[in-house]
Amino acid sequence: MNSKGIGQELNRISEELTDIDGRLLELKKRRQELQSKKQQLEQKLKLSTESREVIKDFSTEDFPWSPNVRHILKSTFIMENFRDYQLAVINATLSNEDVILIMSTGGGKSLCYQLPALVAQKGFTLVVSPLISLMQDQLLGLKRYGVHSAMLNQISSKEQISSIQDMMIDAKSPLKVLFVTPEKLAKSKRFMARLEKSYTLGMLQRIAIDEVHCCSQWGHDFRPDYKFLGILRRQFPDNVPILGLTATATRSVIDDVKNILNIPAALTFKAPFNRPNLIYEVSPKPTNSEEFFNILLRLLNGRFKDQSGIIYCFSRKESEEVASKLSSKSVKALSYHADLDPLVRSKVHESWYSGACQVIVATVAFGMGIDKPDVRFVIHHSLAKSLENYYQESGRAGRDGGEAVCLLFYGFNDIFRQSSLVCTEKTGVDNLMVMLKFCHEKKLCR
């Protein structure tokens, strides 16, 4: 073969190799798509298998209260249909079954206790909630629906406490939902005495425990006062179902929760977790604070201009500094953390919810269950302490189903800051390592 023939053969082989490389890339991409779809289908199959018996019994609309439930859904909550598992959980709790519901952030957990509270002619649902910001958020939402609700915490005045406690034993009271912190139950003998009287009079309809994973030391957000809640089943043994709600809990945590709350036979509903409208991104965090601030400023004046959002910071000091600097650059930003006066926290929350404030710069005290539908971005200024915490915090975006961005800035120094805090927790270091893996492995991010 002469040189010309060899050259032609080389060209042919090169073209064929290029063609093969192109097809390999297409096949690799297709393989990844199929692998992802396979995992999703396997997860759905697993979930449906785990919950099949429960759903079969409670997902129908042939219960005595079903017409009323459907009417309340449409007339009060202005919804045409239930989301996955909502109807089954509502029917189960109205059947006096103890229930644990594991549902993604934004999945509609709150309706599962709000709607049943309106079915009974008299009485109220007690909701145990860990954060004032969460209670305020739920109160604002229920007020818009015309549902009479109240909360008791450290900012409640004597007059408010007296009025609410009177409603707790008044059969003609309009009170339907009462929010309290676990600390209120654990430390107020007077309130527990009034709750016992409510129970005796048939006024205590059910107990909902939001963020129920906080009961377990094996969970990612253990709170000591939650362990006191185990007394509730002993104090109110008959016709007061317990409904535990969480977005993040493993099987071992749920088993621990059932044991702590003395509800071993509780039905467990576990809904799918994927929220395709959330776009997850991880970006390198500059070591220079001014450079980092300028990146945030460009995002808020550009990509997220005039959009509602949250920036999560590591500490109170950090949240105040970032909010102050953003405000000095004409960004409507407010700081939120646990050390603020309760009335100030309430005003900050209302300002953000109404749209007067564009962005809340917060610690994790701005918390679980926040239900503002139009949050378009959640920025993590610092590393979250676990993947479960990150899922929950970032999940406050896109509750309306619209596209939203969850942006995490990852810097090496944050590892040391978080590790110094989580080292005393039972699974703290292990959880932090999983979070680091998420930041480093591209295939774990969508």
TrEMBL record:
GO cellular component terms, semicolon-separated: chromosome; cytoplasm; nucleus
Taxonomic lineage: Eukaryota, Metazoa, Ecdysozoa, Nematoda, Enoplea
SMART domains in the record: DEXDc, HELICc
GO biological-process terms attached to the record: double-strand break repair via homologous recombination
EC code(s) of this entry: 5.6.2.4
Residue ranges constituting the Helicase ATP-binding domain according to the UniProt record: 90-267
InterPro entries documented for this protein: DEAD/DEAH_box_helicase_dom, DNA_helicase_ATP-dep_RecQ, Helicase_ATP-bd, Helicase_C-like, P-loop_NTPase
Name of protein: DNA 3'-5' helicase
Catalyzed chemical reaction(s): ATP + H2O = ADP + phosphate + H(+); Couples ATP hydrolysis with the unwinding of duplex DNA by translocating in the 3'-5' direction
Family designation: Belongs to the helicase family. RecQ subfamily.
GO molecular function: 3'-5' DNA helicase activity; ATP binding; DNA binding; four-way junction helicase activity; hydrolase activity; metal ion binding
